[in-house]
Amino acid sequence: MPANAPQVLLLEDDPAIARTICYALEREGIAVTHSLLIADARRQWGSRPFDVLLMDVGLPDGNGLDWCRELRSAGSIAPVLVLSARGEEMDKVLGLELGADDYLTKPFSPRELLARTRALLRRLRQFQPAAQAQPAAALQIDEQGQRALVHAKTLDLTRREYQLLQCLMQGAGRILSREHLLEQIWGLDSESTDRTVDTHIKTLRAKLREHLPDREIIATHRGLGYSLSLPV
User: Fold this and answer.
1) Does one domain contain both 223 and 183?
2) What is the pLDDT of residue 201?
């Protein structure tokens, strides 16, 4: 699977349905991470960024729509496609009102699922440039020069602070766990701990605050991790 393949998290407790979905998406170049339970899906979602969430509703450890509502309340903008055996109009309306972007009734064809997933990925790609175009002048990453700029002025960052900011900006609007940040920046073999991430976040915040005093762009989510909102 290519490194830049779209990332989909699938929450489905029926192994047979999950295998069909995984096969249909992966043969088209879409990477799928499968969770049987909401608890594992929460852990996966917090560990790294995903582009789309495909979720069943009736699960052994809860209702998928409750989690969907929590994600929206936390500010997540990732597209959500609900997969449910309940196809009544009121069920669909409820799912959409609680934050789902689309609703697919079981049984469904793999071709239709693929088409709907692609549509959500296209919508996501269309949304992201518009969201980033305005703040680009305020906060930018110069990857070639390995530096960060605020209003075209270079930030005095350490290598780790730069990598941390770059990682947060790549996942802007999403909550990134300490474990994910540790793995991406310090590596799996590092002896660094969650405290290392907290310390670097603190110093990075202080430096950003010097240039953006009216906006706290890095938010702490207790027990979950950190998120970054791009300044306008």
Assistant:
1) yes
2) 95
Residue 10 CB coordination number (10 Å): 24
- Looking at the structure of the chain, the number of domains it has is 2
* CATH number of the domain within which 212 lies: 1.10.10.10
pLDDT digits (tens, 9 = 90+) for 108-135: 999 999 999 998 888 776 544 433 434 3
Q: 157: how many CB neighbours lie within 10 A of its CB? A: 20
At 216, list the tokens.
């706290």
Burial track 53-86 (b if 16+ CB lie within 10 A, e otherwise): bbbbbebeeeebbebbeebeeeebebbbbbbbee
Q: What is the mean pLDDT of the chain?
A: 86
**pLDDT of 136 strictly over 70:** no
Among 204, 195, 194, smallest CA distance to 164 is for: 204
The Cα–Cα gap between 26 and 36 comes to 18
Q: What does each C-alpha distance from 169 to 50, 83, 151, 181 come to in angstroms?
A: 14, 31, 16, 12
Tell whether the model's pLDDT for residue 30 goes beyond 90: yes
